Amino acid sequence: MFNEFPDTVEIDLRTRVNDAISWLLDTFGGVFDFIAAVIRTVLLNLEDVLTWMPWPLVLGIVAVLAWYATRSPLNTVVLTGLMVMIGMFGYYDLAMITLAIIIAAVLISFVIGLPIGILAAQSDKADAVIRPLLDGAQTMPAFVYLIPALMFFGLGRVPAVIATVTYAVPPLIRLTNLGIRTVSQSAVEAATAYGATPRQILRDVELPLALPTIMAGVNQTTMMALAMVVIASMIGAEGLGQEVLLAINRIDPGRGFEAGLCIVALAVIIDRITQGFADQYKESIS
Amino acid sequence: MADENGILLECRKVTKLFGDDGNTQQVLKMVRDGVAKDEIQSKLGAVVGVREASFQVHQGEFFIIMGLSGSGKSTLIRTLIRLIEPTDGEIIIDGEDVTKMSEDGMRKVRRNKVAMVFQHYGLLPHKTVLENAEYGLKTRGISWQERRDKAQSAIDRVGLSGWEQYRPSALSGGMQQRVGLARALSHDPAILLMDEPFSGLDPIVRRQMQHEFARLQEEEDLTTILVTHDLDEALMLGDRIAIMRDGEIIQIATPDELVTNPADDYVASFVEGASPARFMVARTIMSEEPLTAREGDPVEPMLNQMRERKIWSAFIVDNANKVTAVLSYDALNRAHQSGTGAISVGRQARKPVTCDPEMAISDIFPLVLNTRHPVAVVDDRGALEGVITKNMLLEALAHDIDYDEDEVETPSSETTTEQANTEVTSV
Ligand SMILES: Nc1ncnc2c1ncn2[C@@H]1O[C@H](COP(=O)(O)OP(=O)(O)O)[C@@H](O)[C@H]1O
Ligand SMILES: [Mg+2]
Predict the structure, then answer these.
(1) Where does residue B4 rank: exposed (0-12), middle (13-18), buried (19+ CB within 10 A)?
(2) Which ligand gives the minimal distance to the CA of B73?
(3) What class, spelled out in words, does domain B283-398 have in CATH?
(4) Class of B7-113+189-274 per CATH?
(5) Which end of chain A has the lower number of beta carbons within 10 A, N or C?
(6) What percentage of chain B carries pLDDT values higher than 70?
(7) CB-CB: which of A187, A192, A193 is closest to B124?
């Protein structure tokens, strides 16, 4: 008789969750539409720019950025070479679409994550609330983020970006908080002594001095966003991620390998360039 | 600016407690009852950072707060502009009690009346030297052009011209502290607060900065409160010095009083190593009864007086007590023998060596060694205030040397005889 769990004590959470979501959609539909419209606009514009640019120009930009970020001829050649490799695999267009999603996701993460990070740094109460949320978010499997995005925004690129942002924003919040909290107190004290307001202190002292740490956060967020593109393709993100997903579905390891390699290449290019600039800034203020 | 008594800043029984959560009143009562810092800490776990500190700083004064590490100097100077909130007491800056001010009112005081220089400079590493120097003006909302001009002028005054566009990290410690100083000067403060500004610097740079700052303080007529644990610095720079121990001010005195008349053994041990040459000034050691004569005075009585007082040089002064010449006994005697009846500043007289009453005695040595007469101490209008002989200098230094008291003899002024034994040339 104990082989079956009794029906009588079953909790029907799923119906309630679904009900709650439809209630939210009914009540705040306008808000969701607005969010979706903003994200769509950002995304489309980015895509337009990236696909409009002729490939030699993109290669040129990568080369120039790589040079100024690393100041190393070898790194410049390798990073530009990785971009060429993507083209030779025939994934240039898909890479640009993926890049648009990544940039959009990072921009939105920044806009959301920075104020939350600042809030957490300035108020211990806010920190006490935000910290466990971030801890929880980080232990959550990436797939889980697809569900609410899917529920509120359906299928397509917009929910893909939203899922990516939700997954990728915690390190940015965490490191913004950490960065501001570890700013040298003597600089803050000096600004206070000269009559700076809390806002002036934030703008003139805390943010600039926390910037290397915040940039490390942006870097981590970017890497997590890249990792998320394959998963987000399950709800309709186009680009390299979708290619990997197709390869899995069709049991075509070669194709999956190529597309996967391109994602790695993008990750390396973005990582090296942003890290390089971050290091230079850090050097200049220490 | 200052009130009618010239007081620019006043502390009245300022107390700062740390870790006094929940039992502030109880701890304050113990502080008022004079319970020792250690006892309060062991009984209630509260640290008394500053204990009922009271002092006044006058317009143009150089006020020093000195004490060993942990005595509460930094805490005290920070409470003055509420970088650390005082627990109790009143702080009057320019007639207003800042402890009762709102955040906004406090910001106005910080923007318009005070500037602070920090031990660890407190510069903004991402800003250039020029941007750092103008930071105080920026918080005040002063226009770009005026800001640049004032910051540039401050940078020039601290000797950093040419470094405007560098970041602080490109500068040595001494230069970074100059930037901190430029930031304070461009702010044009009524009161300059400095927390061990020179102690992070190596000794040679430190001495150099101290001298430069002493000059700046004079030139710009600053009112300065400086925290230090360096006795030499305090004695050299300070008009008055407050000595702190365990959060308490135990003596406020001029450098001179402090060394000659310490309030207790603690202060005495603190100032023990003080070398008088470093802080004593002409005024402290001079004789205030110089032998003077006027042109036209009879020679004979003067010679008698010189023999009587065993003083072998006389200063000739005019009606305004201004020193015009110095005459030796021998020269006067020779004139007397050749029949001259009245003193005249003629061939026998010599131009006197003079010094300022505030001149450090270490600086008077070369003067004394270069003349056979005593050095005349004159005020800024040239009027005679006193004289200093070689012996007076030696005597002042003798205080510094440990010897049995009965061996100490006041050197007789006879030794000055030789000073007079020389040919006198005309003025
Ligand atoms: N934030 C603080 N919390 C607790 N105790 C403090 C704090 N700041 C200073 N103190 C204590 O106050 C006393 C005075 O410190 P401080 O003003 O830094 O001394 P000083 O500048 O003379 O070296 C010391 O006993 C120190 O331990
Ligand atoms: Mg200190």
Answers:
(1) exposed
(2) 1
(3) alpha beta
(4) alpha beta
(5) N
(6) 90
(7) A187
